[in-house]
Amino acid sequence: MVQLAGVTKQFGRNTALDGVSLTIGPGEVFGYLGPNGAGKTTTIRLLMGMLRPTSGTASVLGLDAWRQSREVHRVVGYVPGEPALYDRLTGRQHVAYCAHLRHRDDANRAAEVAARLDLDLDRPARTLSRGNRQKLAVVLAVMSRPRLLVLDEPTSGIDPLVQQVFHSILREHTADGGSVLFSSHVLGEVERVADRIGVVRGGKLVAVERLQDLAARSLHRVRARFAGDVAAEDFAGLPGVRDLLVEGRTLSCNAPQSALDALLKLVSAREVEDFECSEAPLEETFLSYYGMDQAGGTALSAAGSAAQHAG
Ligand SMILES: Nc1ncnc2c1ncn2[C@@H]1O[C@H](COP(=O)(O)OP(=O)(O)OP(=O)(O)O)[C@@H](O)[C@H]1O
After folding, report:
1. Where in or outside the cell is it found (predicted)?
2. Tell me, what DSSP letter sits at residue 281?
3. Does the predicted interface ipTM exceed a cut of 0.90?
């Protein structure tokens, strides 16, 4: 669906992207993460044929993104970071205009998506809030049922309830074999919907991984109180378990998801009086591995606490 092979993009002396290679397959939601200025929008503009790579190749659905950009625009639903709308046209007029450009009648599908997103299609674009402009851009991108959706920070400005609806729309899209490239500067925005995430920093793709693998490495804080004394050695040697501490009848430790089953079996072999297990937010695990430290103050403190748990 998407293939970047050694793509570099320079603006004068500034290297915005540096040798990025990436493949996105059918039925996949790919979360493209990175702090401000990392190169997300540059990647997306290259894929949409708005920029020409300095070196390397970008292709979309088998089409060369630069040389065949008109065909690319026909088959991709694109939501830019700052949607460009016609101030005086209503949502419905935008829908009619885009449908006309594509020689299709997508009005019913557009009305259905707009209703789900709680967007009034009869208001002129100039009266729409940032979130509602974003929703209209989403309606225009999905109404023709394109095989690929390329979304540049599409949910900034959209409230959490509507984000859930938006996620279901993306899931329906991938269930039909479509794919999604979804950029964001925070994991929280994509973690509920992405299958894989890629992290771009300073123009380099520094990590690509399946979200379920990241979740499997996420730490759980475990605490158990037993009816009698226990020894730390009874629980030692479980792979990935950190900060193991036994004080009298109480055990505490941090364990990745992959160690929970074995740990629980050891715990339940004894008489348990109290048990607690809470998962650290995925954002913490993510930050501790990839340190997206430009994401903001809260993120910084989360990274700090994750690092402490990691011992
Ligand atoms: N047209 C341009 N001319 C010169 N430099 C540019 C241009 N577009 C982007 N850049 C530079 O390329 C780098 C990557 O920018 P890009 O917009 O791709 O980042 P981003 O990850 O999308 O950031 P944000 O989250 O802030 O939108 C930045 O250093 C930016 O200043």
Report:
1. Cell membrane
2. P
3. yes
